[in-house]
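Holo model, zinc ion. Inputs:
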Amino acid sequence: MFFLLRDPCGIICIVLTYLAVFYADYVVVKWVILQTMQNSLWGSFHMVMFNTIAFLASLAHFRAMCSDPGTVPLPHNRMDFSDIHSDCNNGTEQEDWTVCTRCETYRPPRAHHCRICKRCIRRMDHHCPWINNCVGEKNQKYFLQFLMYVAVLVVYAVALVMASWMEECPSCPIDITVRQSRILHTVLVLVESLLFGLFVAAMLVDQLQAIFGDETAVEQAQDLGPYRPHKPRLALLTEVCGRTHPLLWLLPCDTGVPYSSYQSDSTTLLTHEV
Ligand SMILES: [Zn+2]
Ligand SMILES: [Zn+2]
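Output:
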């Protein structure tokens, strides 16, 4: 299912994200590798490695942006909630099905309503404008992969730029304008790396805390937990990344059915319909 929200803020953020990744790739390839490592095998190696990581980061972002984050389906028939006193943000019926009055439907435990997506999302963590989508049960893996690959890309870009500054190379062009352009672009990419690096590191720590603490950002904000039984870290990661070999968790593609401890929405909803 192809998913794209028409939120202007989100669309600006995703354009900025892709521009930032492409600019870093352009500077590292054109102004670092091709200028300073042209005649060495290391040049080819770094060219392949850097582009592969940039491609994986972009693919993970694309999957996080276009995947269904775990939208709770709307009922086929109107439901009667007259005997239920609950609203969208009411979390008192913990670990139980609740009612969303905005979607007018029952929703599984840990699902929350997103005001931007205008739907309830299973195990919603937060709405992220940088992927123009919610981070939920079905796309959190891709979001994590995106953060991880960008973190690697930032460290890699900084290391390559530093190395190009420190080593005087005999084959580098001596034209002063070329040298000045190289310095300008590499300084810009360093500033960009620093900004993105700090942002991504903070997000990555946040996400890992949420996963290992078994408490989404929404639940933290609403002070809903932790009330679930303790689970090992590997089990918690499996819930997010799927029941496959951990090495496959690194690939931004469908490598396993995302874990869900509840029945499929359509069948369970039928039992709740009035
Ligand atoms: Zn809702
Ligand atoms: Zn959302």
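Helices lie at 8-36, 41-66, 140-166, 176-212, 217-222, 233-241, 265-272. Residues 13-71+130-216+228-258 form one domain.
Archived with the compound record.
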